[in-house]
Amino acid sequence: MIAKRKTTSDVMFEIINIAILLILCIIVIYPIYYMLIISLSDGYAVMRGEVDLLPVGINLTSYLAVLQNPDIPRSYLNTIIYTVVGTLIAVSMSALCAYPLSRKKFYGRNVFTFMIIFTMFFDAGMISNFMVVDNLHLLNTIWAIVLPGAINAWYMVIMRTFFQQLPEEIFESAYLDGANDLIIFTKIVLPLSVPTIATMILFYAVGYWNGWFSALIYLDDKVKYPVQLIMRNIVLSGETTSMSSSASSMTGDLGAIATNIKYAVVFITMLPILCVYPFVQKHFVKGVMVGALKG
Amino acid sequence: MKKTWRLMSLVLASMLAASAFAGCGETEKSSTETSQESTSGTTSTASEGSDTLLAEPLTITYLYPENGYSPISQDCIALQEIQRVTNVTLEFQLVPSSDYGTKKSTYLATDKIPDVFFGSQGDIKTYARDGMFLNLSEYEQYMPDYLALITSEERADDAKNLYLDGNLYSFVRLEQYRVGTAPQPMIRMDLLEKNNIAVPTTWDELYDVFLQLKELYPDSYMLSSRSGTNYLIGQIAYSLGSGGFEGFSTSEGMYYDPTEEKYLYGPIHDNFKTVLTYLHNMYQDGLLDPDYAVMTKDICWEKLSSGKLLFYYDNDTFAARTFNPALQQVDPDAYFDMLDPMENSYGQTRALRYQRDWFADNTIINSEVERAEDIVTFFNWLYTDEGAMISNFGVEGQSYTIVDGEPQISDELMNKHASSSDKLSAIQAEIGVGQFNFTPYINETWFKQTTDPLMVEHGDRIDAATEAGTIQFMKNSMALAFTAEEDETLTDLQTNVMTVFNSEVDKFITGARSLDEFPAFVEELKAQGAQTIEDMYNEAYQRIQ
Predict the structure, then answer these.
(1) Which of B11, B330, B435 sits opposite A249 (nearest CB)?
(2) Has residue A225 got a pLDDT over 90?
(3) How far is A6 from chain B, CA to nearest CA, in Å?
(4) Among A92, A217, B74, B310, which lies 20 to 30 A Cα-Cα from B109?
């Protein structure tokens, strides 16, 4: 290999490229960094607007306040359970749905596809969904969280499209060797689709991790709430108490000194999913690279 | 292949774990069902010869919003004491307060409301006529204490707003004792003292003080708003001789004028020009922060606690609880202090304080409960002296002791929460009392023990000014006084009027439109129906008198 000498324009391009990427990195990282320094700073210094680049009056009181809240550890565990169980079910169900719809010989696949696509454009609405979940006796159980969203039409379509791109010859040879669809699905399609499945795991996991609305609607018991619902309440309580008609109460200004607590909660809930990204990203990039067919 | 099997076994193991988890859910669900059953059955009204309020145990499920900063515990001592004394177990179904409205609406729409829920007057208006809620007027003999309170002389007038078609549907949150709180003129008193500036007593004198301060501190502004133009107008308009947008009703120009003894739509009366002129002059002289119309609460707070704003007209409590501690970390002498209500150019000295009681906080009972008399008896009990003591202070000897006739927080609790940023809320959350909990008859005596004495002093001054007649209570909501058709008309008219008002009001303040055009502006508002709104309010007000 002969090392190619870099021309001035190459160097210029790299400098500009790095500069643009650095700016983009700062735009993405600074809000997260800002939350971190606010959560570590003194509440009054935050209120006076003194915190820009470095924390002022560093202390961990906001984190202690958050962790002393008995709801946080319990809801954290709930979120992990909902995310793991939900993602497993969702990815399995989506793959099981996508596979037949990707097979050309599946009779009526266009009708089924249409029925699924239809739900992307028209939603029955919250009340009817609630009544369905209620009549299935799923209210106030984990299933109310993980089952209604088990197949996301959009993600299923992505999977189906990926499966369709697999070479037809593989299926034909498998059939000739006596394999049935179940064997083809588990032993050929799934192993060949690892990048897509990893991507789906990431999408679904992030969805379940961030999800709060179905928990709000379907769960009655506080001990089953996911952490996002608890976090949302802490973040919004400051605003709502000071803006509600009860603002006349002394407690109306409670939120004023709680900005650092809010950010501590947001940071704590964001951290795990942030840590998962780099590991899944490996497959994510691979998925893009090899997705174009290897034959 | 191995990988596939591993994956499948992982799926199966997780499902097993999940079903165990769901199993827990089922168990708890069945306990809720049992509790709901327990509210049915025979009635056991106030017990005779029994130690408890009710002879038969009763469990009431209560849908209630939980504040993020003040978690409600089912095991708190207040609830345990209530159960011991009354034989009633309050079983809370807690919903995050941030999204309580969504959950409540879903339950109301699907008829899944538990025995009792925390609702609004809007809920009563929308659903009570369909028979969804217990008509308390049919159970008056079980609620003598509550009725005595809402028909007392000081409340009787406002309490008429609580009746829908002559019927009562809710227990509203009332105040037993409250540290006086009001949006008041608050000024950096340390700067006045330092520069030998006399404390202003009229709005004109205040303007002169603003000018002097601006000369001394040219980088600072005097006034801004934490929530836009209408909020700012709402804070000062009444005191300046006009009115409208009071409290948090930023889309509502109506106010009750005690001089004329009727409701007025503030912006269509001549006195409103005084308000606009005052703000316009402040803008021209660099006294009003140029960002007043778009300033967020956080930025407003930042400016007030860092010396960039030297005056505010908002809750007096913010000074002692929020701004003074923040200011004093940097300058120990700095502090905001309250000015007494100021005389306006019409010779009136007047200001508003927040409504008595919390008419927005309603405890509403499902009409399908079977031991309705007992539930009503229980909620009535919470408004008795005994009920109020337990639901505000917990248990004597455990959470409080009586000193000089007043309940004092126990030393143990005080020490435990000494480092908390909001000591009182933390203590109340532990006991299970206070406004963030379900307490329906609020007593705020503990503020005296837990907050800056300056706040209590302000409270006393506000009470004194109320006695003297210079501060009046804002009127409580008249939501129930209007018919459904009137409501619809009002919403349409208010939208039309506010569209014109919002597009023009800042122009007057910034000078983009001359104040000479004020009469034309009034005509524009009237053309959108402002006068009709005023007439409808007065008609409805007459109906409930």
Answers:
(1) B435
(2) yes
(3) 46
(4) B74
CA neighbours closer than 13 Å in the CB half-sphere of residue B119: 28
Distant-in-sequence, close-in-space partners of A246: CB < 8 Å, separation ≥ 6:
A252, B358, B360, B361, B435
Contact B400, B406 (CB under 8 A): no
pLDDT digits (tens, 9 = 90+) for B145-185: 999 999 998 888 888 889 998 899 999 999 999 888 899 99
The Cα–Cα gap between B277 and A257 comes to 35
Nearest CA in chain B to A228: B96
Q: What is the pLDDT of residue A287?
A: 54
Domains of chain A, by residue range, sit at 8-59, 70-290
Q: For strands B88-96 and B58-66, give the pairing.
A: parallel
Q: Which residue, among B377, B364, B388, has the nearest Cα to B87 in the 3D structure?
A: B377
What percent of chain A has pLDDT above 70?
87
| Listed residue (A240, A67, A242, A209) closest to B65, CA to CA | A240
Q: How many Cβ atoms are within 10 Å of B495's Cβ, its own excluded? A: 12
Eight-state DSSP code of residue B19 = H
Under CATH, which number does the domain A70-290 receive?
Answer: 1.10.3720.10
CB atoms within 10 A of CB B489: 16
- Contact: A220, B32; criterion CB under 8 Å: yes
The pLDDT value recorded for residue A2 is 58
Joined together, the tokens standing for residue B347 give 């010779």
A231 to chain B: nearest residue by CA? B68
Decide if pLDDT at A288 tops 60.
no
The mean predicted confidence, pLDDT, of chain B is 87
What is the number of residues in chain B? Answer: 545
Domains of chain B and any CATH numbers: 54-176+359-443 (3.40.190.10), 183-353+475-544 (3.40.190.10)
ipTM: 0.81
Closest chain B residue by Cα to residue A183: B1
Query: Which residues does chain B have within 8 Å of residue A65's beta carbon, measured at their own beta carbons?
Result: 421
Q: Which residues of B touch A92 (CB under 8 A)?
A: 11
Give the span between the Cα atoms of B307 and B130, in whole angstroms: 55
Instruction: Name the packing angle between helices A71-102 and A153-165 (round to 10°).
Output: 40
Q: Between A and B, how many CB-CB pairs are < 8 A?
A: 187
Question: Mean pLDDT over residues A193-201, rounded?
Answer: 88
Decide if pLDDT at A77 tops 50: yes
Contact A44 B326 (CB under 8 A): yes
Q: What are the E-state strand segments in chain A?
A: none
Sheet of B116-119, strand order: B88-96, B58-66, B116-119, B358-365, B170-177, B441-443
Q: Do A246 and B227 touch (CB under 8 A)?
A: no
For A88-148, the three-class secondary structure string (H helix, E strand, C coil) is HHHHHHHHHHHHHHHCCCCCCHHHHHHHHHHHHHCCCCHHHHHHHHHHCCCCCCHHHHHCC
Task: Kindly state whether B93 is in contact with chain A, defined as any CB-CB distance less than 8 angstroms.
Answer: yes
Whether B103 and chain A come into contact, CB under 8 Å, resolves to: yes
